[in-house]
Hints:
By secondary structure, this protein is an alpha/beta fold. It is built from 5 helices and 5 strands, in the order E-H-E-H-E-H-E-H-E-H.
Amino acid sequence: MNNNKIVIAEDNSTLSLLLKFRLEKEGYELLMAVDGKEAIELIETHEPDLILTDIMMPFVSGLEVISHVRNKLNLPTPIIVFSSAGQEEMVLKAFSLGANDFMGKPFSPNELVIRVKRLLSLS
């Protein structure tokens, strides 16, 4: 079993529970945030091995989370962002801020697991 910690920032509770269940099945420790503000607090407290964040969230957006991790905390933590289709500009902005990967919603939890494993093996 691995003991990698992953912060998930997702305001959709159904999706967030699905991701939590699927990733815990793989042996990851999940820290759940319902918005970007909570995600930043979890990241600062727990220094996760990977961050999964939605772009559109209340209070603090996924873009602000990426910016905080890269510019204020100076962490190289891999970040996967997800967003609904039709937000190409946001996705490009996420990459320019330092995101490592992107998945459009809806996406396959199995594909997410593969991407998570790949990024964690590189870090």
